[in-house]
Prior knowledge:
Layout: E1 7-8, E2 14-18, E3 21-24, E4 27-30, E5 32-36, E6 39-43, H1 57-61, E7 68-72, H2 82-90, E8 94-98, H3 100-112, E9 117-121
Parallel strand pairs: 7-8, 7-9
Antiparallel strand pairs: 1-6, 2-3, 3-4, 5-6, 5-9
Amino acid sequence: MIIREAHFPGRAPLDAYGNGGFRFADMSHRGSLMCLPSGIHGWEPADPERLTVRDFERLLTEADGIEILIVGMGRELRRIPEPLREAFRAAGISCDPMSTGSAVRTYNVLLAEDRAVAAALIAVD
């Protein structure tokens, strides 16, 4: 059996979240997601409570196509650590942390408006 990295090669609105995952494009994914211009990728930050620049390496390599980053922090809103905020600023990305539910809704609206948006979403139960 070959296990491949989870990847949907396109942009799609998120239909649902919860139970440890997300639904989009008539599919479901268990775990966290990173929604980028290159597609929707499975994403597992090393420690969801302490996000680091390393957790966002893929996003930062695609920074040219991203103006706004929505970060779904789980059930509770938490601040983005300063070193990570500095990395986003240096890449010209505006970063907005919020609960995952709010992040899903905001991402869908910005995506429908055809904005240069990305999302990093920590799965919630």
